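Team,

Forwarding the record for the chain on the shared tracking sheet. I've put the sequence and predicted structure together so nobody has to dig through attachments.
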Amino acid sequence: MNYELNKREFERVKREELAYIDSVAQISSSKTLSETEKLEIYRTLNSYEVKLNEILKKLWSTFPRNDSLTKDNLKDIIIEIDLPKDYLSSLNFQYDEQKKYVLKKLWIDPETLKFKLTLYNLMRCREYWSINSDTIQNNQRLIEEPIYIFSGYYDTSEDCYGPCFGDPDDYLYGIYENIHNNGYSNDKKEIPKKDIDKFEKDKIIIHSKSYVYANEIRKIFEEELLNSNNQTLNDCVIQTRNKIEELNYTRSPEYKEKVLLERINELYKRVKGEFIGEEILYTGNFLQILRETYRFPNGNTILKEKNIKNGGKDSVIVIAITQEKEYIITIQNRIKDKLIAEFPSGYIENEEEPIETAKRELKEETGYVSDDLFLVDEAYTSPGTDNSKTYIVVANNCIKTDQKSEDGTELVEYGLFSEKELEYLINKNIINGAMNKLAYYNLVNNVDDCNVHYIKSNKKIYKTLREKKNPLG
């Protein structure tokens, strides 16, 4: 029963489509179609394609199957529609073969002018494709002038395909792909860079972006052709460009960072406490302890102790590397009966920049100096109880001087260690401070290559590090 209903529904919609196609041929033979009219024809044909495709799938799924189905049945006609003798006679074909080709695309027998849906077609063509609108509009193309996607610059020589280097006028090309209203054409053009401005003049060019590629642009453009809000091709192009920009942004690192920060900020709002007040519990030569009172969003009031070390000063750790590629490690009296090795370090004094502090502390503790220093990372030392930060600085090409400080406030010894020895000190927890291990983590994750043991001095990597502040406060 469902099969017969699907047959009747397919025949009804197919008759409508065939009549519409003939009417388009007649109208286009007597007038010049506007862009709006051609877009409407394109969309109407697409709507028939969607409907018939859906019915065709139902027709196949409900087709009665039995053991008698053989190769001999493949020519059996499931649906047949007689068409008038003058069907598509208003199309101006230069050759009869052209008309036969169009009729066959419509599953119409050119000799009998009958539309035939055979079992073979049903089995082979479970998806229905409508005819290209340009074909039935008497050569009035939907896209009169080519629309090109610019997909990038390439070296298209046999030796190298991809981004190229050298004299761009010799072998640097722009790759352009032509869009057609019936999908993507393999019409690609390789335009020398020096000729690109001339090629693009008076043409519609849609540029690909960092995170949106040519195949996606074609799909977006085809969707905009079907968007009834677009009255002209220019509207379709503008909306395509807008969607490319939007899609490119939503895939960009900047957008991902924005979304991540919004998520983190939303979580933070749920726990952010209101500061009520504080009192001093203890003040010593180096350490001060405060008790702070906070009220949380859930209404609870809590007390928190906060340590202020050395007046709340920030500190610096220096990964110091000599010209011989040895690491400078210091030994100080830190924990009773414990041997703890460290990178040179110290507190920032008198509003120094971390780099200046690193220079000073390195010289004071070891007598080494360097003019090749850069910031690697920063972190709160103990965010639960302490507001101070530790900055990690790399000092390359350190040179020994005789100016080690002996001021009596601290006793420091140092040694020079190879990369393997440094790794041993870390693995055996001889270098065991949290900030020192963070410094080592930065070291091993920024090594230039297997033959160079000091951290990259590529300033581009670290140029924004001084701006690396928590955007949420």
